Amino acid sequence: MERSATSPDAWIASLPDDQRADIELLDRTIAGAMPGQERVLWEGTFWGGTEQRIIGYGALQVVERGATVDWFLVGLARQQRHISVYVSAVEDGRYLVQAYADRLGKVRVGSASIAVRRATDLDLAVLRELVGHAVSSTGPGGGSR
What we know:
Blueprint: E1 2-3, H1 8-13, H2 17-32, E2 39-45, E3 51-57, E4 60-64, E5 67-71, E6 74-78, E7 83-87, E8 90-91, E9 94-95, H3 96-100, E10 108-109, E11 113-116, H4 124-138, E12 143-144
Parallel strand pairs: 4-12
Antiparallel strand pairs: 1-2, 2-3, 3-6, 4-5, 6-7, 7-11, 8-9, 10-11
Helix pairs in contact: 2-4
């Protein structure tokens, strides 16, 4: 995946009406919990081989397949049947999403991802807390994972 020349706002505006409101709400929630952090649209082939557009918040450098690459701390993506929120922060050897899993609401949780059908199924106050924790655990301006 690479940073796109398309702005996150332009991508959100291009979404169908029935999906735009959920993405807008989650975008505002995540961006609001990360003041001063970058917000960039990433496009391309995501891990697993699917084509994705992901709004990335914050900046990290991660090691992927032996190479150091730029990445985002938190990501927001629309999938075919759900919305994904990715949180790339690790604490005490496990992804932060795992520590918040039982408080996030009506969601499915992976290692570093949250899948939700509608934004209102996710406890937004807990999401803000999780995102704030991710920012504080990586330090100002991001960090390495």
